[in-house]
Design a protein that fits this description.
The chain is of the alpha+beta class and 500 residues long. It has three domains: 287 residues, no CATH class; 132 residues, no CATH class; 58 residues, Arc Repressor Mutant, subunit A (Orthogonal Bundle), CATH 1.10.10. It has 16 helices and 17 strands. β9 and β10 form a beta hairpin.
């Protein structure tokens, strides 16, 4: 459920339209390549330009990706849908119309659930429809003129339209992040926002509580979640200022300038009637048989929400850790491979005194992934889970040494840093060469503890008087005496016994 937080006495109403570039090798109605970065106008065929005598042919792979999305959000996949021509003139639209879906889209309804902090939200979807992308206007390096690159024209898009269920910029950004992660998880989009693979159009209006919806303005082509929040916040305050000054909001398409942090009107906003939609005479209705839907369903990966719940029940993880680990398919897969690697190792082989904590390695693996080594290094280097350079089998070996008491937590971090940078590939060799192996010999540690207790009678007395800090001081002295190489768990255990 969405919760409304008033801004200056007004309720904010937000709906999103997301243009998701589908990960097909060819365009939606032609065999032209969809590869990014080619020289301008080298990937635009006569079909993309609607030259006389050409006919569009629907790309089956684009349809399958739409079906996959519909199934993932619990929507209805229409057994029959229609392609229409959306008529408007713009320099980067060579046909003078865009082939899209209007009255009967391929995906109808559905919902997306996500968290904002600890609060669960649900945004209902109106529809998701297939369409072709337009070209791109280029305004740099053309001596004051604009150039048109039609490579993108005809690239398959799935436009996902939400209901106006969001009530803040932060909520809209979390919805967009969840949608972004989902389409990447499903393998239907590469999610590259800088290349325009995932674009956000945000419809914003304000109203007094209980009043009808206000007039909306559409912020176009936001390619950053941070920009989305900033653009919505500026637009909301701008609209409130206009209303408070006695002016009416005019429906418009606006652009956000991240350099100034402001939105500005680009053109008046059209209504659907202005586009003069009519069924495309060159494309028959799209018929999707139940067998096709069932086949696509059978090929889909486990969905993130389902996997997160399984991580909670099967591995005993917290809801927060389960959600973080299922933030991407690459991260979730790495975690499961790490768990499998830990399950196959018996650390008692290296430290007989310490049996492997079989009930706790799931939590340890999650902590290493979410809070410690992996996440910290990925964040520092600006990388994603696909880029982890340390194989899960090697990390499992490293973790098993720390769990078994062979090395300390600090030692594990030191070894991991060398594995991450490629300076080392073998865990045990690094432990030996760096002298990181912990002292786990009971007799040796007891002898050191006897010396520490004899040298610190005041701390012993304070501990027995109920001062817990004195115990930590004694542990510190023991670790100092062993130059940090004593197994801290064993030091704690033996010290408690000696102190009674």
């Amino acid at each position: 459920m969405s919760t409304s937080k008033l801004i200056r006495g007004y309720e904010v109403v937000i709906g999103l339209e997301n243009h998701v570039q589908l990960s097909t090798q060819s365009k939606i109605f032609s065999g032209s390549s969809t590869a990014f970065g080619a020289a301008p106008n080298t990937q635009a065929s006569p079909v993309d330009l609607a030259l006389p005598g050409t006919l569009p042919v629907l790309n089956r792979a684009a349809v399958e990706r739409a079906i996959r999305f519909g199934l993932a959000v619990g929507a209805k996949v229409a057994p029959l849908s229609i392609f229409a021509r959306k008529n408007y003139f713009y320099p980067d639209l060579p046909k003078g119309y865009q082939i899209s879906q209007f009255e009967i889209p391929v995906v109808q309804g559905g919902a997306v659930e996500f968290f904002v902090g600890d609060v669960k939200h649900k945004v209902n979807l109106t529809r998701a429809h297939l369409e072709e992308d337009a070209g791109k206007s280029l305004h740099e390096d053309y001596q004051g003129q604009s150039g048109i690159d039609l490579n993108r024209a005809g690239t398959p898009l799935l436009e996902i339209v939400s209901e106006p269920d969001m009530r803040s910029g932060a909520e809209a950004a979390e919805y967009a992040k969840t949608l972004h992660a989902l389409v990447m998880w499903l393998g239907i989009c590469d999610g590259n926002m800088q290349e325009g693979s995932f674009r956000c159009d945000v419809n914003v209006s304000v109203r007094k509580p209980g009043e009808p919806f206000g007039t909306r303005r559409e912020i176009k082509n936001l390619n950053s979640f941070r920009f989305l929040v900033d653009a919505v916040n500026y637009e909301v305050n701008w609209q409130i200022d206009e209303i408070e000054d006695g002016r009416k909001i005019q429906q418009a398409t606006v652009l956000y300038n991240p350099d100034t942090g402001e939105t500005r009107a680009m053109r008046s906003k059209e209504d659907s009637a202005d586009y003069r939609y009519f069924p495309d005479p060159d494309l028959p209705p799209l018929v999707i048989a139940p067998e096709w839907v069932e086949r696509v369903k059978g090929e889909m990966p486990e969905l993130p929400a389902v996997m997160a719940k399984r991580f909670e029940t099967a591995y005993g993880l917290s809801t927060a850790d389960a959600l973080l680990l299922t933030g991407s398919l690459a991260k979730a897969s790495y975690f499961e491979r790490l768990v499998a690697g830990l399950q196959s190792i018996n650390p008692a082989k290296w430290a007989d005194a310490y049996a492997f904590d079989g009930a706790g390695y799931y939590g340890r693996a999650a902590s290493v992934m979410v809070n410690q080594l992996v996440a910290a290094n990925l964040n520092r280097d600006g990388k994603s889970a696909e880029d982890v350079p340390v194989e899960t089998g090697i990390l499992a070996t490293l973790m098993s040494r720390q769990i078994a008491g062979v090395i300390s937590a600090n030692g594990m971090r030191e070894v991991f840093s060398l594995l991450w940078t490629g300076e080392a590939t073998d865990v045990d060799s690094v432990i030996e060469s760096k002298g990181l192996k912990q002292v786990s010999d009971t007799g040796a540690i007891e002898a050191i503890l006897d010396e520490v207790l004899a040298a610190n009678p005041k701390s012993v007395e304070e501990y027995r008087a109920g001062k817990d800090k004195a115990f930590n001081a004694l542990v510190g002295q023991a670790m100092k005496a062993t130059k940090g190489k004593a197994n801290p768990a064993l030091v704690n255990e033996l010290l408690k016994k000696k102190l009674g």
